[in-house]
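Repro case for the chain-ordering regression, as requested:
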Amino acid sequence: MAHEDPIPPRNAEEAEELHERLDPETRARRDAALKIVRRYGDPVLRSRALDVARFDEALADEARRMGQVMHDALGIGLAATQVGVMHRLLVYRVDPEAPVATIVNPVLEWSSEEREPMEEGCLSLPGVLVEVERPVHVRVRASDERGEDLVVEASGLEARVLQHEMDHLDGVLILDRTSREERKAAMRALREATAGTSPLGVGA
Ligand code: ZN
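-- result from build under test --
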């Protein structure tokens, strides 16, 4: 499967090529999943999600459904706001062999002074890859889908995905975390992007 490819694309053209190489079934499933994901311009992506108060079966269902959309979209993370649900809930999976992690009401407790830049994509911003500088290590306090306390200490890509998804819960997008030049190019790419041509990047 394509998302097991350990080498992420370095730019939009490379991402486009990867997308073209997907087998037709995987590509169709991905395109269907991406139709569920809210896109740039949708006001929910700019809204702040609310704390989850009820840890019930509906919440567990929501998390399962998000995990499926993320999987089908070949993404490595998904925030509830991206599917139009205003809950502070996110799912992610950096290692394709690992189970999907569900994080509820996350709070960034600590982040390292050490930061690094990396190109990021977003399932809500088809055709866009921009460089984003973020802390390399983070500690996040949260709950799981049953309401049990959770502390996640993450580094590298995992820390990056967590921060990317937590940004979504505050209505913040990678466009807000990149340089003026990259943002301008991204806006151009967004205008040119059409359904079904979104790149296979580190989409989250
Ligand atoms: Zn995103």
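Ordering looks correct now. The CA atoms of residues 132 and 178 lie 5 Å apart.
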